[in-house]
Amino acid sequence: MKKAFLILAAGLLFYACTSPLSPPPPKLIPEKKMTGILFDLHVAEARIERMGIMLDTGAVYYKELQGRILKKHGISQAEFYKSYDYYLQNVSELDKIYEKVIDSLTVQEVEFDKPKDSLRVSK
Fold this sequence. Notes:
single chain, mainly alpha, 5 helices, globular
């Protein structure tokens, strides 16, 4: 999972280095909120991948989950994409966001992989 994020980050870096900088959109999503949104989107993507469903079905399901996630955060799809495009062009800001996203995903992965305490019968 970490490899996928590193590849994504490298691709974003390449894209950002070749794009001209633009001013922030009027409703730029703040870094903290963007971190939460991206975290939720990557968790949704991982869940879909683990389902083992057909690629096109997974894409439809992901689009549905993306809509729910954006609604949960009170963000329109247009606001998200405009903010994401802005962050793509501002690598240092996007890098800070993805460091937090990866840290949060790592913590969740560790929590998920922890062995669950078995039910103990007290005497």
